[in-house]
Amino acid sequence: HMYGSVAQQDIVHLLKEQHRVEVEKNMIRMKQHIKNVGTHRIEFRLKEGVEAAVTLKVFAEGTAAEATEA
Known about the structure:
alpha+beta; 70 residues
């Protein structure tokens, strides 16, 4: 469990910063904010009839995953 959560705007920011992919937050289909570490499937509706999905891995701060990103 996390103290904070991951919202659509966080995903928009991460995609742009880390992958140079720009999406609008209303394209992201989430029933609720992500509140747990682990792997999460994120679905997008890019336009009428065009959908996509990505896998988001959420790590706790200070874990080994942060060290591999540096």
